[in-house]
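SAMPLE LOG
Freezer: B-3
Tube label: C17
Construct: single chain, 64 aa
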Amino acid sequence: MRLLGLELKLRQYETGRRFCDAVVAEEGPAGLARAWSGPAALPSAEELEQPALWTARMRAGIAP
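STRUCTURE (predicted):
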């Protein structure tokens, strides 16, 4: 059970890293900083898997 929890946590870290890398590549570090500008800017689970959805939402100024 503990091993499964560790695997899930590692998967979460990997997803987060891929999201951050993709946003920085597209928008730069300042673009990524927007993710922590407020609750409405946080990426959804779907956006974490598909960072382009988040960057499009941020460009459009649309809250989830």
